[in-house]
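Form 12-C: Joint structure prediction
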Amino acid sequence: MEMTARRTEEKFQFNPHQYRGDFPILGEKVHGKQLIYLDNAATTQKPIQVIDAISDYYRHYNANVHRAIHKLGETATEAFENSRKTIARFISAPSEKQVIFTRGTTEAINLVASGWGRKFIGAGDEIILSEMEHHSNLIPWQLLAKEVGAKLKFIPFKEDGTIDFPVYETLLSSHTKLVTITHMSNVFGTINPVIRIVQMAHDRGIPVLFDAAQSVPHLPVNVEHLNCDFFAFSGHKMLGPTGIGILYAKSQILENMNPYQGGGEMISSVWFEEATWNEIPHKFEAGTPNIAGAIGMAKAVEYLENVGMVNLTLYEQELTTHGLEKMAEIPGMKIYGAAPERGGIISFNLGDIHPHDLSHFLDQQGIAVRAGHHCAQPVMRKLNIAATTRVSFYFYNTKEEIDSFVDQLKKAKEFFAY
Ligand code: C6P
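Section 2 - Result
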């Protein structure tokens, strides 16, 4: 299914309270106030099922994987490899061998820049990115470009936070070796037109990487349908633990890539002077992996499958529309980005209140939001601002929470008296 958010006229029912009880942290008080957690683009909260899965591993079958010939080792290996299968199923990867465990999106992209980029990108070659990239999908390419003498080209974003598609077309050339772009912007919430991006690149034989850190947690994803060559995302933004993430890539590409790091498990045979590599995906997983992280991430995937990704997307659209409407009613509100296809991320400034001051004010009321440059400094520079405040929703948020947040924005306006 196309990953952009589906719109429907049908009456749609979703009850977040059916799930909230699974998230112990949502019952916490902050500064004596009920926590309202609206910083889900930074990281999501964890349901008890994920917490228990991690704890069960350490309590009952903690052992290293792929090494031991004892019962615990076998159980751990089976759980670890089953986690890979679960995650492969979630993104409709043709084979779990195409699912590589990394520390997160950042490491997944660095893996591609190092293992693929160093081998296939050289002096005078070009890499196309967009201007709305998170630093994680910018700095690895800057480092590579400097090392090999390649050039970075940027698809501009427009006033409404969408990419300038006609410019994209003009940037594609015989020098282009890779298009690497965010699937969903962590500043504007824009869902980029990924199918068209891939089609135009593939017409010219150019591979495409999607930074899916913000999309996979919120949209149904099918990597085969997308037909992208690389796809990177993080467990912690989709109910899983930190320190675990995924690189998916096409098999042929993975087979042709160099290893990322050297060490145990990624080898087949080793001599004093040389070595041969293990099969994919193990070729890219040097050292003891984050076993508990993988198990926790797979449990998070099962949780999301149970909620239903289409339901989740539709409900988050309702939350986002509600938030946008209520926020726009406040005089002095400036919202960045107005893409027709967008997820539940809203960046804004209120009058001349500094985002850090506003975030601090909201925190005193138990409301967690993010303020700053959102690891997208070039985006802030282009907008000619230092920072924004950002709210980001997940399916366990409620319209009432958004209303409380908007009420506090109105109070902040009075408090800071601009
Ligand atoms: N954005 C945010 O608050 P890691 O840190 O590797 O899990 O994810 C990095 C990353 C990559 N791409 C995008 C589009 C992202 O949004 C992020 C993480 C968080 O916006 C933390 S900076």
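Section 3 - Comments
Residues 51-305 form a domain with the Aspartate Aminotransferase; domain 2 fold (CATH 3.40.640.10). The longest strand covers residues 176-182.
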